[in-house]
Amino acid sequence: MRIFISGGCKNGKSFYAQHYAKRCALRLAKAQQPNSLYYIATMKPVDPEDEERIARHRREREGWGFATIEQPVDIENILDKCSHDGSFLLDSLTALLANEMFPADGEINEHAAGKITGGLLQITGIIENIVIVSDFIYSDAVVYDSLTEKYRESLAKIDRTAAGQCDVVLEIAYTNVIIHKGKDMIGNVI
User: Fold this and answer.
1) 2-186 to CATH, choices 1.10.287.110, 2.30.30.20, 3.40.50.300, 3.40.1160.10
2) Which residue of 3, 81, 128, 168 has the fewest CB atoms within a 10 Å radius of its CB?
3) d(CA 36, CA 21)
4) Which burial class, exposed, middle or buried, applies to 31 when counting CB atoms under 10 A from its CB (0-12, 13-18, 19+)?
């Protein structure tokens, strides 16, 4: 099962995503033993707040059985690093876009969305059990500078691609789960 989760920042998306990825692994397992469980980490920390968020996520998934794969760019490369029949959690598209669009060399990559959507199509074409997390940052009425608008537009494009490839689309709003797609399927992992 492929699940896409979006919602506001810092509202529990990662916790729900961990839960769903683990449930998918258990559902697939033979003799109640979990399949391979992978956490695809995309965040490159740039400040102490990022470091704390990463540490919190590690504490939250401690003991869950996740093998962590750090993949801040070139998301399709995860296919070379692990078994494709496991259960995956990709957290998050928001960080992945920031890394691809604003690389360390300072050159802005305005084509990052196309690169990421191509990678997502490769991944979802092969991996059958994945939970993909993103942030819903493009619905307010504030007018931002052109670069921020390009980032928001790019994330919306990536999110539409991810949602289109997934069986289930969820929004997490203040820890409430809103099902936008796949209501008949989500019972398999809740």
Assistant:
1) 3.40.50.300
2) 81
3) 11
4) exposed
The mean pLDDT of 84-92, rounded to a whole number, is 92
| pTM recorded for the entire structure | 0.91
What residue type is assigned to position 187 of the chain?
G
C-alpha 116/C-alpha 76 separation (Å) is 8
- Name the region of 109 (left: φ>0; alpha: ψ -120 to 50; beta: rest): beta
Q: What is the pLDDT of residues 148-168, one digit of tens each?
A: 999 999 999 999 999 999 999
Name the 3-class secondary structure at 49: helix
H/E segment holding residue 101: helix 93-101
